[in-house]
Amino acid sequence: MSTPALERLCVHTITTRPWPIETAASKYAAAGVKGITVWRDALAGRDIARTGARVRDEGLSIVSLCRGGFFPARAQAERTRALDDNRLAIDEARALGAPLIVLVCGAVPGQPLSESRRQILDGIAALLPHCEAAGVKLAIEPLHPMYADSRSAVNTLAQANDMVETLRSPHVGVAVDVYHLWWDPALENEIARSGRLRALFAYHVCDWRTPTLDLLNDRGLMGEGCIPLRQIRGWVEAAGFDGFNEVEVFSTRWWAADQDQYLQQIVQSYGEHV
Ligand code: ZN
């Protein structure tokens, strides 16, 4: 595998969480980053359409909005509320000019995973008319099994691909995040299957640190861990993916660092390890 093109580098706003989105957009553009994925919290209190225009004026492509999902709940009223919030997210994506929403699908501690998966499938199906009207796609992001209790009952790419096959909509695909999927012996085959389904909508990179000190906020920057990043990008590109390589790092350690130096490190690590 060759070095990844800088034109395909995207950074998630949460990666540089201390920066407001306006700062992030101008700093990313100055550093040569070409894409931005926006987390909904970065839009709080803002005119979303105007924020989207401002980000594009910096020369950045808006790759996706993070995140929707969290469909399962024990009570119907809660599941209905979740659908309402997802429709709001779809409206926000449209206003922002983001073509895609990434789904963290949800789970309920103590509720059987099979039941949560059924509720996830029903939830996504219920959103499809709204997606079609808004021209916004959804990407199911499988999460590492350590999050199967409360964050996602979708834990392998095979499960996500199965859902894509069941839903049969050009508006539903998958997001491959190396942090969640690198360990899976079926990963190469399932990435190829996503490609055949024309469902490989997004690719997220970071690294897995040993030891990992926090289940949520101790992701590594690329090169700080054990994920075979270049090999996995090879599989993704062999499956026909030609979108952005999105740097998504939740890290208490990096959020405490000087964010300008960190951004330089992100660009360097991208070139050396992705
Ligand atoms: Zn991700």
How are the SSEs placed, and which strands pair?
Blueprint: E1 9-12, H1 21-31, E2 35-39, H2 48-57, E3 61-69, H3 76-96, E4 100-104, H4 113-134, E5 137-140, H5 157-167, E6 172-177, H6 178-181, H7 187-196, E7 200-205, H8 229-238, E8 245-247, H9 252-255, H10 259-273
Parallel strand pairs: 1-2, 1-8, 2-3, 3-4, 4-5, 5-6, 6-7, 7-8
Helix pairs in contact: 2-3, 3-4, 7-8
This protein binds zinc ion.
Structure description:
With 274 residues, this protein is α/β, with parallel strands linked by helices. It has one domain (6-273): Divalent-metal-dependent TIM barrel enzymes (TIM Barrel). 43% of the residues lie in helices and 15% in strands. It has an eight-stranded parallel β-barrel with strand order 1-2-3-4-5-6-7-8, surrounded by seven helices. The longest helix has 22 residues, at 113-134. It binds zinc ion. Zinc ion binds at residues 141, 177, 204, 248. Zinc ion binds next to loops.
Kindly report the CATH topology. Answer: TIM Barrel
The count of domains is 1
What's the mean pLDDT score?
98
Low-confidence stretches: none
Number of helices: 10
Within the largest sheet, what's the order of strands? 1-2-3-4-5-6-7-8
Got a strand count? 8
Chemical compounds bound to the protein: zinc ion
SS-based class? alpha/beta
Main sheet record: 8 strands, parallel, barrel
**Outline, from the CA principal axes?**
globular
SSE pattern: EHEHEHEHEHEHHEHEHH
Distance between the termini: 9 Å
Strand content: 15-25%
CATH class placement: Alpha Beta
Q: What is the C-alpha radius of gyration, as a whole number of Å?
A: 18 Å
